Write the C-alpha cells for this entry.
Amino acid sequence: MSATTKPSETPEPQSKEQRLQQFLRRKADDGEMYFKSKFIADEVGLSAKEIGALMVKLKESAADLEIEKWSYTSATTWRVSPA
C-alpha cells in the first residue's frame, strides 16, 4: 500500500492579492484600463478599501503590469496597463 496522497481535486483558494492581480491582468490584456475600486469591488470579491491597499502593493510587485494612481476625486482612479 502506498502512503502517497492524492492531489486535491479542488483548487487552492487564491489570496486576495492573487485574485486582484489576475483580474487586472485579464482586463489589461485589452489595453489600458481606468477604474475606481468601488466599481470593481463586487467583481473581484473584495472591499474598495482592500483593493486600494492591494493596489499599492501590486504597484511594486506586479512586474507585468504598469499601475499608476491616476487621479483623486471622491475616490482614487487607477490606471493599469500591460508593462
